[in-house]
Amino acid sequence: MAREAKYRQVESFIKDGIRDGSLEVGSRIMTEEQLCEHFGYSRMTINKALNSLASEGYIKRVPGKGSFVASVHVSKPSDSLKSFTEDMRDIGMVAGSKLLSYAVVRAETVPEVQAKLSLGDDDLVHEFSRLRTGDGKPVAISYNYVSASVIPAIDVACLSRSFYAFLDSLGIEREYCGSEFRAVLPTDEQKRLLEADDIALLCSAHCTYTRIDGLMVPFEYTETYYNGNIYTYVTRD
Q: Which residues face 132 on adjacent strands?
């Protein structure tokens, strides 16, 4: 197995400190000189690692003062299939959900969703929104639309936990397709729910498919609005 690049080793060292709490938000990390001495690497290697961490939102570099731990941050590859629950687990936080609304509607009342899920006017759709949290703190708001022809009934209690765990319990396999990303300004209601004013939101939208009689069938459309100060989607090299 190839050894991890030197600058990646420095990144992992600092990320591990952030995740295990030994490096708290706002605390100053080791200087470039101290990191050079600790690892025995060149200043160029250390600087590359710190610049990468800053671009991903883990640290803030302040000229003349040093580098400081930023707020808890998720840097997620755009092709990642991990769920929100798994994202939170990766950074040492417990994921949670608060159900904001739930209804069953006719597909024709949500025409964009109707088109994405290839539904008829009279087909029914489970429509629900949830506040997603990490350690009880608001992180994102999701809006989900699920075809009732594939999932006739939903245990509403599961929407305060992991919806995908509920699908797993039904034995429904999933594949994602057509992910879209865009930056948007929050509504007043979204600011209130996320308990933040000076933010931009990152909207991630995708369709979820399952296989029925050998055919891939779209059954869920989801839009999730993340606090852009906490979530970043990145493209893999």
A: 97, 140
